[in-house]
Amino acid sequence: MESSIPLSAKSERRWRSKPLQTSKPSLVLAFFSCFAWLYVAGRLWQDAENRTLLSNLLKRNTAQRPKFLTVEDKLVVLGCKDLERRIVEAEMELTLAKSQGYLKNRLSENGSSSGKKFLAVIGVYTGFGSHLKRKVFRGSWMPRGDALKKLEERGVVIRFVIGRSANRGDSLDRNIDGENRSTKDFLILEGHEEAQEELPKKVKYFFSTAVQTWDAEFYVKVDDNINLDLEGLIELLEHRRRQDSAYIGCMKSGEVVTEEGKPWYEPEWWKFGDEKSYFRHASGSLLILSKNLAQYIDINSASLRSYAHDDISVGSWMMGVQATYIDDNRLCCSSIKQDKVCSLA
């Protein structure tokens, strides 16, 4: 009976059955594709909702965040608006006090606690190895013992000026302390390290310590290779009494040494201009400052710049204030003038 079916009919059935067999995988693939699309779309929708929610929360928190307050706003809130005015007034008063000679530490027991006013404090630079020089000075122009006390009664204080050893408390310090107990003629700079390279800073420590220790009209720095005509110096200072802002000495200038290794080499030579010449300043052998200038050094000691030489350092500090430069030939210790008050030892 199968043979009775026409050949064309069989071919038609085979042709119709093939699409039915191949459509099953396509349906499965289409199903999974639809499912995947729905999954991805759902995730994107969920992410969009999350972003919207986070954005709303951020805006809400930003709106609730307290605004930034300036110092002035805080003072107003605290009811302390008047505090700002008082701070400004206090700063102005402090500036005025400094300009009039405010001292960080009041004068100590070495002279002015009793209210005594001195004419001058003379600081003679010395070092650990200068014991013989000090002995010679005490036997020549510098009084000692009771004579030193009588000189102070006249209003003149003389002290050898020295710092401390780099190894605090060693034999160098102990020897100076022992000598001072015997002679009582030292001004020991506790905050200064006694060393050749630290000499420019020593002058700052000397003026600052001296002005805090004794109330005097003048403060004199003398090198340890200088002999003084003490009475001649006292007469010179008596003549200058009550002269404020006096910067007294043998005024000079000179070429800045720029070559390392040479005497008087200045490491910061480039700061002195193209001509390489120092400004006008008093020779470091003997220089004198009136009280208000010494107080200026004391008040501003932390910010005053020191150069390679102490006299240059003092000269640079005097350029920034209304100092009166007094060039006195009697203080040129290396000259051959007959009426000078100092000479090389």
TrEMBL record:
Could you tell me the membrane topology recorded for this protein?
A: Single-pass type II membrane protein
The entry's cellular-component GO terms read: Golgi membrane
Q: Which residues form the DUF4094 domain?
A: 23-100
Q: What does this protein do?
A: Possesses hydroxyproline O-galactosyltransferase activity. Transfers galactose from UDP-galactose to hydroxyproline residues in the arabinogalactan proteins (AGPs). Is specific for AGPs containing non-contiguous peptidyl hydroxyproline residues. The addition of galactose onto the peptidyl hydroxyproline residues in AGP core proteins represents the first committed step in arabinogalactan polysaccharide addition. AGP glycans play essential roles in both vegetative and reproductive plant growth.
Question: Which molecular-function annotation in GO is an example for this chain?
Answer: hydroxyproline O-galactosyltransferase activity
Spell out the protein name for this chain.
Hexosyltransferase
Q: Which residues form the signal peptide?
A: none
Please give the Gene3D superfamilies that the UniProt record associates with this protein.
3.90.550.50
Its GO biological process annotations read: arabinogalactan protein metabolic process
The family line of this record is: Belongs to the glycosyltransferase 31 family.
Coiled-coil regions, chain positions: none
- EC number(s) on record? 2.4.1.-
Q: Which cofactor does it need?
A: Mn(2+)
Q: Which UniProt keywords apply?
A: Glycosyltransferase, Golgi apparatus, Manganese, Membrane, Signal-anchor, Transferase, Transmembrane, Transmembrane helix
Q: Please name the pathway.
A: Protein modification; protein glycosylation
Recorded source organism is Populus alba x Populus x berolinensis
Cellular compartments annotated: Golgi apparatus membrane
InterPro entries assigned to the protein according to its UniProt record, in alphabetical order: DUF4094, Glyco_trans_31
